[in-house]
Structures are given as C-alpha cells and as structure tokens.
Protein 1
Amino acid sequence: MGNAALRDIAVIEDIPFEEIEGVVAVDAHNWLYRYLTTTVKWTDSGKYTTADGTEVANLLGIVQGLPKFFEHDITPVMVFDGGPSDLKDDEIESRREQRRSYEDQLETAREEGDAVAIAQLESRTQRLTPTIQETSRELLELLDVPVVEAPAEGEAQAAHMVKRGDADYVGSEDYDALLFGSPLTLRQLTSKGDPELMDLEATLDHHGLTLEQLIDAAILIGTDFNEGVSGIGPKTAISAITEHGDLWSVLEARGDHIEYGDRVRQLFRDPDVTDEYEFDAAIDPDLEAARTYVTDEWGVDAGEVERGFERIEESVTQTGLDRWT
DNA sequence: CTGCTAAA
DNA sequence: TTTAGCAGG
C-alpha cells in the first residue's frame, strides 16, 4: 500500500550538490524527523535531555543538518505543517485552544470513520511533540532560517511555492511531493552522498500522462490517504489510466471501488495552500544567541553542537549568504 | 524505509 | 506483475 511504488513511476536522477542552487522549500516535518531518528539512534540521550526529562534531539539535528545547505550556497526555507503546529509562540492560551481543536477534529474524524481526514490529520502531526515544534522554530529564527507556516500539508505548500517561483526545489523524502505538483523535488538532502532530483515534467512526459492522470494512477496504487486497489501496482495503474483516461473510468471498467477516491483526488489537485508568506533568502544568523539557546537554555551538550556551529559560521561568512557581505 | 526473494 | 515476509541499516 505504501507509496514507494511512486518511485518506480517517477523520473529520478542523482544530482551533484554543486549543481543545486537557489532556494529549497523544505518539508520541515520530514526533515526534522529524519534528523531526530538518526540523532536518537547514534547519540547518548543524556546529550540532549533536559533535567526534567524533555528530549530536544531536534536542536542537535538542526545544528548538524543546516551546514549542508549553507556550504553549498543553498537557502533552506522550512515549511511547517498546519494544524496543531501552526501556532506562534506568544499566547499559551490560544495554543491550548488550537491543540484542543485539533484533538477534537481527530476525535470527530475517528467517530465518523472518515479515513481520509484521519490520515490527513495524522500525517501532519505524527511524532513531533509540541516542544520539538516550538524549540525548532525558535532556533531557526535565531539562525535566520526562513520559516513558512502551511495551512495544511507542508508538502503541498512547498510545492506551491516552487510553482509560484518563490523557491527552486521542494526538499522532501516523500514521493507524494510529485502528486502535489512539485516541479522539482530533492530527496536525500539529509544523507551523505548526492541528492536525488525528482522531475515532474519528465515523469509526465515519460508516461504520456497529465498530472491529473498521475494522481489518479497513484490513487489506484494507494497513497497515504487511501488504500488502493489490490492487484494494481505501478505498471497496471499506468496502463489502466492510459487506456481508460481517468480514475472513474478505470474503476468502472474493472468493477472496483475506492473509498473517498474523490476526496483524495481533491486533496492532491487542490490542496489548502497560502500566498501569505514572505522571507528573505539572505541569511544572517545570530550564532552567539543560537549557541546560548541550545546549550545554556536547553542544556544540549556543547561538544555535540560545536562542529555544526563552526561549519555554519564558516560557510555563512565565506559563501556570501550573509546579507552584509 | 529500502532491497531481495519466494510464491501466487 | 504484485504481494508478503524477512534482512539490514
């Protein structure tokens, strides 16, 4: 059911870091989670746990992950998911309200058995605690890394920003960036080697499909939001859509049914996104404040972040990302 | 999550 | 060609 099948459909190529330039709209949830899991796996938990037991491995991950961008002259823009996380850190009261309203939404969706709504809500919030959401935003702000708040899926908002020309690539591990219409998507920005570039236009050309048809094919195979039809994989989906034209015709011809198919289709075709954002691609981090925040305020082991901060310092002053140079 | 194998 | 199950990171 997973959407790894999309990998077989997508046109993907390795691209050297040197060839990437400009702004990458990063699916922040995705990116943070990636670093969270590796940090937790390889680092002694005492290095990122406060006295009261709060774990802030995300701070370590951010400090270690950002140099990748800066050293290659790439400006990351972190796009956060909407829902419970789209809260500014002023009013605790409104934060509580928002969190509660989210819980309510999820609760209601569960009661109604609305699988799409459940999947949608869960995909946005999965695994990132409120503390992680908040401290990540605060550290990014100190480092002058732009943050954009998505109304719903960060992935969709990031794709929207690339479509509008405000960013050059979406940065995400998820293949559904393609379904949200991301023209160019970078994967494996967090790994050692070169990233992968997923090209929407090349993908559509290769299969002779429209984006709408690609979405329909993906729904047949199964996405994060729906089950898909058993027995249909990437090959069958593409040929069926090519033969019959669209999702409904395929389902009719096969006598199959997909629950909430229209909702999922709508979710990808016309996602909830906003034009209400702005950011400055020139980055001028306050490294002293960031160091203090991470080590003094949250008690992260200084040795663990030292190298990361050094790399940020060196790359920002040397590459001209700094607006003052 | 990615990769590989066996079985339908 | 698809799926399920298991390996390994």
Protein 2
Amino acid sequence: MNKEQTIRRKILLWYSQNKRDFPWRHTKNPYEIMIVEFMLHRTRADQVVPVYRDFIKKYPDIDSLASADPVEVSKVTENLGLHWRGKHFINAALFIRDNFRSKIPDSRDKLLTVPGIGDYVAGAILTVVFNKKEWVVDSNIARFLNRFYGLKLRGEIRRKRELIKITKRLYQTTRSEQLTFALLDFSAMVCKPVKPVCCSCIVKTKCTY
DNA sequence: AAGCCGGGGGG
DNA sequence: CCCCCAGGCTT
C-alpha cells in the first residue's frame, strides 16, 4: 500500500467520526454547491450558513438567479463582505443559462469557462456533486499537504505546481466526494494554520512537519 | 508572481 | 486592535 492510500484511509476514517455538519452537506444540487462555494471565498463557513439558506430560498435555481435584480441579490450577500461577489453570482447564472442551457456542466474545462469558477470551485463541484476522479485544492488542504510532505513552499502555496501534482495523486480514488469533505474538515480542525493539534493527529507518524 | 477585495469573529 | 477566513481576477 502506497503512502497516498494510507493517508486517504486514515483521513476518511477520521472524517467518519469527526465530520462537521453544514446545510450544504445535505445536497447534491450542483447549483447549490456552486453558490455556497462562491460564498466561502475567504469567508468562514459559520458566517455563510444563514446567508446560504436565505439565498437558496430566494433564488432556488439558475434561471431564477439569472433573471434576478442585481440590487436585490446584493442585499442578500452584502454582509459577507467582498461586495463584488453580488454581481458575480448573476454573471455566472447568466453565462450558464445562455451557454449551457441552465445546466451546470460536469467537466473541468467547461466549468472553468464560467465567470467566477476557478480550479477550486470546479473541483468542488466535480467531486462533491458528481463524485468524479477529480481534485480540489484550497488554502487549508494546501497547508496540510505542504506540512505533511515537507514541501516547505511559501507564499500562495495553493497555486504552486508541485502541490497540485501531489493533490492529483492523492485524489486517485473513487471516493472523491468523501475525500474533499474529509480533507477540508481535517485541515480546518486538526492541521490548523496556527497551533495545529499534532498530538491528536492520526497521520502524525508519517508527517514530516 | 503579486496585489486586491471586505465584513465579521476570535485572540 | 489586529489578524485571518472553503479564491478568483487582474496586472
């Protein structure tokens, strides 16, 4: 068994006993996942919960959002900060309505053509919704892998080629959906940015940090 | 490769 | 009061 398989097994086992619960963990609707991933940009998950509920209630699908009043949409999202995101939601909805017949695509190439969707959001949709053999890197997962493999990368490590390469190897699994949530929760709760809880880490014996 | 956006919560 | 947070876009 290689190193990646071992990590996957341990992280998934840890996840089965320590998973966080959020409203968007109970849906496979690609639209809802896209919306919440937009909201989670540099924003704490707890802060997103009420806004997400309100947003989905008012704009339940691509078409309702595409034809919505931008000012009204901004009112829903304003307390998330990063105010440019208000237009961002509608632009993505318009693009998907006009180019993909209101159906969110299931390939990375097509997802990346949508304004506001980058590698992270695309990967999240592909794994969480479609359970594809795809990959996801965010700042938390990047930090965990950087420590675990002793890469010693600095700066915006989530964009580094070497890190993406390792992530793709880690995602050689048929359980990409579970793995994404597991990595997000583990890196947020155990392998934290400051004061990581190494004493209760289930992969510490193989960690080079 | 680096700067920028932003309100809100925690140290 | 300061710092950070499930990124993507622009230069």
